[in-house]
Amino acid sequence: MAEFKLVSAKLTYTELNYLEKVMKKDFPDNERMPISMIKKAIYNKILYAYFLTDGNTNFGYIITESLKNSKIVYVHYLAVDENTRGKGLGSIILTELKKLSEDSIFLLEVEDPDFANGYEDMKIRKNRLEFYYKNGFKMIKDTKLNLFGANMRLMATKGIHVNDWNMFIKKVYYDVTGNILPTLFINVK
Prior knowledge:
Structural class: alpha+beta
Mean pLDDT: 87
Strand content: 25-35%
Radius of gyration: 16 Å
Distance between the termini: 45 Å
């Protein structure tokens, strides 16, 4: 098996265009911020992009945000090249990320299985949940959010106490986009 490393993006024109190309393929429009915002936030060091590579080829990527005045690292996007999925590379990405920030609590969004569009979509969503459970994430109870039109749930590697999840999520996206997004809602049971 090849030796993989998680390397920080160098913010070159080539890397940012590669990231744009794969993100458009990996995440539908309703599950992703506009690419121009993502690229700007990476360039301004609000978001951080990392590639999983063997030194020659990128096999996946992760985009994170270290939240100010906290130990929380918000995972915005994680994807493995479609030709190498199911081979443990997503777990390698998360393991390597955790090594970079050992004291951090990792928080992410995952598609809500309650809103699946049919059997195949439900199966994909449940597989993703199992992947995150296997990698040490737990569902944050009583949080459901609608993000860019997609129904999502929140998962974290450790317990997080937040008084107002709605304001918390809006702040996360405000830091990235520079404005409060009117399409962002969070519903707490």
